[in-house]
Design goal:
The chain has about 130 residues and is of the alpha+beta class. The protein is about 35% helix and about 25% strand. The chain has one domain: Alpha-Beta Complex (Aspartate Aminotransferase, domain 1), CATH 3.90.1150.30. The chain contains 5 helices and 6 strands.
Length: about 130
């Protein structure tokens, strides 16, 4: 998945927006103001392609044990966030989409019911 495909997929999520809340380099994808994905654009452009995604702590441990390309979240709460290295080819685009969906769902699941309802969540396919 290239950066445009990744961006288009993230921004296609219901209620998703993008901005640069930290600096001009760190692209954040949010749902109703809550971050579900982070990408360092400078790193991406020099070939260090990765994305930070929220994850259920138990699933995060399982994924880290199974995939060398999935590590505790860089500059994030290591219990709830993973950094996914996309350089090795170990993470297929379809699997990356599933991980993005899971991150989005984790963030939405933690919102008040009225916010979830405004997103018509859960959506089919997530």
């Amino acid at each position: 998945m290239n950066i445009e495909q990744l961006r288009n997929y993230c921004i296609s999520k219901n209620g998703a927006t993008e901005d640069f809340p930290f600096d001009q380099n760190t692209l954040a994808f949010k749902v109703l103001g809550k971050i579900f994905a982070l990408v360092g654009l400078d790193s991406w452009e020099i070939g260090n392609k990765s994305i930070n995604l929220k994850c259920d702590p138990d699933r995060a441990d399982e994924l880290r044990a199974e995939y060398d390309s999935i590590r505790p979240g860089y500059h994030m709460n290591k219990k709830h966030w993973n950094t996914i290295d996309l350089n090795s080819g170990e993470i297929a685009p379809r699997f990356l989409a599933e991980l993005i969906d899971h991150s989005y769902d984790m963030v939405v699941k933690g919102m008040p019911k009225k916010d979830r309802d405004s997103l018509q969540w859960p959506q089919s396919g997530t």
